[in-house]
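Q: Predict the bound structure with magnesium ion.
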Amino acid sequence: MTDIDNNNERKRALALHRTMLSIRRFEEAAEIAQRDGEIPGTLHLSIGQEAVAAGVCSALEPADLITSTHRGHGHSIAKGASLSAMMAELFGRVTGTCKGKGGSMHIADFSAGMLGANGVVGGGLGIAVGAAQGLRVRGSEAVTACFFGDGAVNRGPFLESLNWAATFRLPVLFVCEDNGYAAFTETARLTAGAGPAARAESLGIQSMVVDGNDVLAVADAAAAMVERLRREGGPAFIHAQTYRLRGHTIADQGAYRDAERHSRQELRDPILLMRQRLTDWNLSQDVQRLQVEVETEIAAALVAAREAVFPEPASIYAEVQDIGAPA
Amino acid sequence: MTDIDNNNERKRALALHRTMLSIRRFEEAAEIAQRDGEIPGTLHLSIGQEAVAAGVCSALEPADLITSTHRGHGHSIAKGASLSAMMAELFGRVTGTCKGKGGSMHIADFSAGMLGANGVVGGGLGIAVGAAQGLRVRGSEAVTACFFGDGAVNRGPFLESLNWAATFRLPVLFVCEDNGYAAFTETARLTAGAGPAARAESLGIQSMVVDGNDVLAVADAAAAMVERLRREGGPAFIHAQTYRLRGHTIADQGAYRDAERHSRQELRDPILLMRQRLTDWNLSQDVQRLQVEVETEIAAALVAAREAVFPEPASIYAEVQDIGAPA
Amino acid sequence: MTTQTVLEAVRDGLAEEMRRDATVWAVGEDLHIGGLYGQYRGLISEFGPDRIVASPISEAMIVSAGLGGALAGTRPVVEMRIADFALSAIDELVNQIAKARFMFGGQARVPVVVRLPQGMVTGSAAQHSQSLESWYVHVPGLVVLAPSTAADCKGLLKSAIRCEDPVIFIEPRAIWQNTGEIPEGDHCVPIGEARLVRKGGDVTVVTWSTMASVAHKAVEACVETGTDVELLDLRSLWPWDTGAVFASVKKTGRLLVVHEAVQVCGLGAEIVATVVENVHGDLCRPPRRLGAPRAPVPFSPPLEAAYRVSQQNIEQAIREMVAP
Amino acid sequence: MTTQTVLEAVRDGLAEEMRRDATVWAVGEDLHIGGLYGQYRGLISEFGPDRIVASPISEAMIVSAGLGGALAGTRPVVEMRIADFALSAIDELVNQIAKARFMFGGQARVPVVVRLPQGMVTGSAAQHSQSLESWYVHVPGLVVLAPSTAADCKGLLKSAIRCEDPVIFIEPRAIWQNTGEIPEGDHCVPIGEARLVRKGGDVTVVTWSTMASVAHKAVEACVETGTDVELLDLRSLWPWDTGAVFASVKKTGRLLVVHEAVQVCGLGAEIVATVVENVHGDLCRPPRRLGAPRAPVPFSPPLEAAYRVSQQNIEQAIREMVAP
Ligand SMILES: Cc1ncc(C[n+]2csc(CCOP(=O)(O)OP(=O)(O)O)c2C)c(N)n1
Ligand SMILES: Cc1ncc(C[n+]2csc(CCOP(=O)(O)OP(=O)(O)O)c2C)c(N)n1
Ligand SMILES: [Mg+2]
Ligand SMILES: [Mg+2]
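A: Predicted complex:
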């Protein structure tokens, strides 16, 4: 257990809580905006899974890189992407991280080392490993973290990228964010063997299983793994067991879910757990302050997104390619 | 050790030896014919690896299915494909297994349950698993064996097909025919972790490692595995450790090989080993009889291939598709 | 006649074929709960989990299941969920399924149907929207279908399942909920025949899939202002109905091909090239194509609107082609 | 000028760029021993295993290494060994590499070169022979090159490596050993310009890659018998040199496009369609295409011979086009 008399530890705990709150409130706001017709398309929300993004990214430096999934808001926020640029992207505005061209599923903030959400399950795995190889060519010491879901472990790129990272000893932290479901299917039904970490171990990759709803546990595991990557090279693997409190997409009511499991998991909401802990440590006032701060930021992001203009139609011809661009 | 007083065991040993001899002499004949310009294109020879094909297929019934690799002559012969149709295929003749359309890399004999060699590394894995699923739909009890090289274990289809077969408990025998090299690369350099069997185990698939140059060991392992597949469903995994005595293709001199390892392996030629054993068992006369028989068959296959005609040019328009065929 | 949505029509079509033939089975993600759009709803309770196979997220293996299953004597229907995900299984589709019969000298038949719900829907952006039918038409061995109405979706799905060749079955994802009249009984639509949507003498418009209804509206608007447009919904992209297209162009002397896919190297190029090679002399105007710009599909609504081939684009092209 | 094989020219081209720019690196199977054809021979001893990366057989990851490496600020050169193997990495190429810059709103650049040794060589059959350049030309975001001479292979490879866009670099696998004159110095060939192989006034032949030398022989034979053929080697397939092609067609009034790929939905269709849309009035004959039949590539020599577009096919087409 963290020693809360220690000022650094207290700061760290509050920072992690703040990150989780930002993610939660960002997505709750987006959820409403989507239902109100302000955000086009669908959304994949990570509500309930915030501890994984917050914990892992707390172990990273700004120069480190991450790749993400279709459910990428949390990873982006935790890595330091701008809330207002992200919200504007969801709204399809020109001030968005991707100038309105990408939307939720392609949210990215390269300035924060966030190399993009991805519409292809498992799509980020190879990119992370390739980025690590590129960093090596450049002589950089940065590490790369790679988030992917429990569904991605049954896709070919999982094997190819883990084997590659292990073969070349690239400093990649693989993070399997296991929320129990792949779309409308309980993943355990279709994932053979002892689970993701066993697969990584069979490839010679050191692995840990952590409670993905305990942000301190995730942060500690990630810090230990990242420290080792920096010291000895990589890769390393974390299987973070969490739970998706919302549907797969915003339209999904989750009819396929086990009701009892769901109620149990609602009580294990990572933000609830952390708030309880912070309260036990007599930090309720700080928690309330953080809530107000985050609320203000989200409100500002919403206002800015609403006020921003849409991109010019002609921008579909821009940023495709320099040579042979569409006319 | 096999009890050689037993008549069945003696018959079995001789049959296995005969299969290995057929493969060896078929490929040696093809090698010469290719060098003489009678066979177009290149060849991937399995000289030195015959025990794997012979041993595994000895455990299969005619109704069982196999899929193969680019190095598929041995698997085809062991599963019962016609030597003369195969030789004719290599020669590009209309009497070939594929009417001259496929050649060595696409050799197939569906009448013998041999669903095809494959030009794509790992291409046969998914086909085998799919075939097993089809057999289940048809209510068949047949099993499917799937040969693939040590290089294929780093490709995505390896993961996807093993996980799938394990999830659906399909009776598939996965056979990793590990000849030490993937093209011009020692595979161990680029294959992370404890090896193919560990990967299969991590997916909950029961595995065995066998001496792939000992045909009796392979046959026993395969028989045990196939028996279990028939009884309990599958899948199962064999890692057969063997060695490629020739180059990757017929043009390859193997300059990248470790010379010492190579000489050691020459002495472990599976046919040498088995002949030694049969001699110890006082079966030299039978061995000589088999050699003569096989020689005669190969000679006949060569003659038949040379005498056969080439396909009509217009046959490129046939067997493409019924609807929308090329004109 | 009954009225059904496209979704209901294809669900019934598959169920009818599965009842008819015990070797027909389906495989794809989330099929146990009816598939992403509900097009498999209820089928698992009738046919059980061995014939409605809910798979892991393993696109390459899903397609291989179809190939292997076909080689083992069954007739698999392979669900890709969204057409873009087939890109993770292109090797299996193109190097294996399309070639197996030929390269094995006719020993193998591969009666697989690969279902690709394709095209743009609001906000689905670059990786969930692209139309690649011209790729499949380029690949020897494949039949390619792209129906647009509920009746054609049902009737061509049934024909596809009975077809001995592998079929790429492109479904109009944006219009699953459109309704149409479905003929009673065993309704099969023959492969290779275009649907004549409207007869006319001034200009020939050729289209397919989701663009058929957009083009239809544009054509009606042009007809109202006096242009007698002939509209063909190709339905079958390979083989495509050269007979119907040539005959129409001979009559009108004008050809406009409209598709949702990127214009460059789209199927429109093949149609235009084939027409000029064969009935060049009958053209009184250069043929035209309307397709998407050579850019990825954007997310933001005004960009999407600019990107799409619209009713207005089609009307304008038609008017320009008949202008004196 | 020095004389080199295509193989030597591209090896030198890569080495020069690697010396020029420390962020250029290469990745693919067996690169440590010089690659399948020897086009990387000697490079590992000069540049070491971090810049000449010999990879596992993991095509999807090989292409991802290029993508990720580019996003991390380097300029990867990705070796596919034989073009057909890229089919195992199409998702990475098309859904990721081609779209990254656009869908991330310009934050990312992906200066990757993907090398595809493409086409038929004797006996390599259905899975090691196909030409799919029209697929890549259809994909927004990609530059597509297909040079045919040693000098162009070197000069365009160097331009490709310096290009900020992802480049599909199709190499003429059948003619690695052909020799040609290489200009001295830093020889870069501009992307987008056709090579005028022969000036002529009667008929325009447009081709690229391995067909360029076959077409050249056919053209020479026709010239001998009095037909004044203009031959353009496109070299750059996207963007392609519409200016050169239009100008030539305006002069000759006749267009023949020749490619090794399947004719249906090949790049020839796009060229013919673009030409008729733009310079229809200048054509005195219907344009023609010569490509492979819509069948997989066969193995047996007489079948291969019947399958290929031959010098004779090209001569005959030219003669038919100028017949009165
Ligand atoms: C290659 C591919 N196949 C299928 C899909 C459709 N799809 C999107 S998300 C998803 C479930 C992914 O599950 P998981 O990896 O556990 O991530 P989660 O949604 O739970 O965060 C599926 C099947 C896709 N986007 N890409
Ligand atoms: C997908 C794919 N990548 C690359 C190749 C080229 N290739 C052919 S065989 C081979 C080596 C395969 O090694 P292994 O699986 O060990 O089989 P072996 O040749 O040793 O029998 C390679 C790289 C291919 N045919 N397919
Ligand atoms: Mg999940
Ligand atoms: Mg090997």
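A: Residues B 69-71, 119-121, 149-152, 179, 181-183, 187, 244, 248; D 29, 57, 59, 81, 85, 88 surround thiamine diphosphate (ligand 2) (CB under 6 Å).
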